[in-house]
Every structure is written in structure tokens, then in C-alpha cells.
Amino acid sequence: MTIDIEKIKPYPAITLLSILGTISPGYLWIFIYNRQLFLSLDFIKLTTLALGITVPSLIFMIATSLAETRRGHKIRKLKNEESEDDKNEIFVYSHNVYFASVWTTVSIGASILTGYFFEFNTVLGVLVYILSILIATIASFANVMYKDFQIRRLEKKADNTSKEIKKDKK
User: Fold this and answer.
1) Could you tell me which of 122, 118, 143, 11 has the C-alpha nearest to residue 130?
2) pTM above 0.90, yes or no
3) Per residue, what are the HEC states of the chain?
4) pLDDT value of residue 39
5) 52, 60, 93, 113: which has the fewest Cβ within 10 Å?
């Protein structure tokens, strides 16, 4: 069976990758830190637990991703560099979810790798997971603050330009 890659639309592909990127790290985390629980739970309970591990950080990452995207859109609008992708809300939101699922996977992946290689217990695994989420959040927050600075600078520049035009007209 062959799959024609060109026929795959970007939104379903991004959605599928986001779902897999959200659920699979939870499965791995449970397997690494509590193998007996992983083997004893049925599929529905295991999936629920895996989602319970990864979804809170995913929601947080989506929120920071949306904050970054909105500021980036405003910067492009102020610079008159708006693209067609900026106007397509489905495109913007699907990419935010994809970005957030990638960061969630990286965050929980750090915990999984340290648990696998260093044989940490569950408490240390949770601490590594929280630490990696904090690092990703601080990086996102710094990016948001930088974009806020750019917006203020561009708005001030636009204000000064409009004041100069009004003076020239008088």
C-alpha cells in the first residue's frame, strides 16, 4: 500500500501529529516510571492517564504560543509585512497547537530520557518534567516580552511619523 504524500492536507496532518505528540509521551512516561501500572491498565484508562500527564502542559504551551503569535502578527501588521497565512485563523491556530505539542513532547521527553538513563524515581521524573516546562515557559515569556518591546517601538515610530506628517500639512 502506498500513500501519496502530496494528497495529505496540512491541517489533518498537523492534527494527527499533535495528537500523537500529546498522547505518546504520556505512554512513555508511564512505562518508564511505573512499568507495572503500564502493563496492568486497559487501553482506555492508560490513554486517560497519559492525557492527564501531558494535556496540562499542552494547554499552557498553547496559551504562550498564542500570545507569541498574536504579537508577531501585530508586528508584521505594523511593518506592513502581513502575509496570507496571518489572515487564515485555522492555519494560525493549527500551527500553534502543533508548536505547543512539540514543546510538550520535548518537555516530557527530557523527563523520560533522564528517567531511562539515570533510573530516577517518579518524584524526580516529575521534577525534571516541571523544570523543563518552566524552561520552555521562560523562553516563551522572554520572546513575548521582546515582541512587546518591538510593538511599542514600532507604535512609537508610527506615532512620530504621523505627527511629522501633520506638522508638514500645517
Assistant:
1) 122
2) no
3) CCCCHHHCCHHHHHHHHHHHHHHHHHHHHHHHHCHHHHHHCCHHHHHHHHHHHHHHHHHHHHHHHHHHHHHHHHHHHHCCCCCHHHHCHHHHHHHHHHHHHHHHHHHHHHHHHHHHHHCCCHHHHHHHHHHHHHHHHHHHHHHHHHHHHHHHHHHHHHHHHHHHHHHHHC
4) 93
5) 52
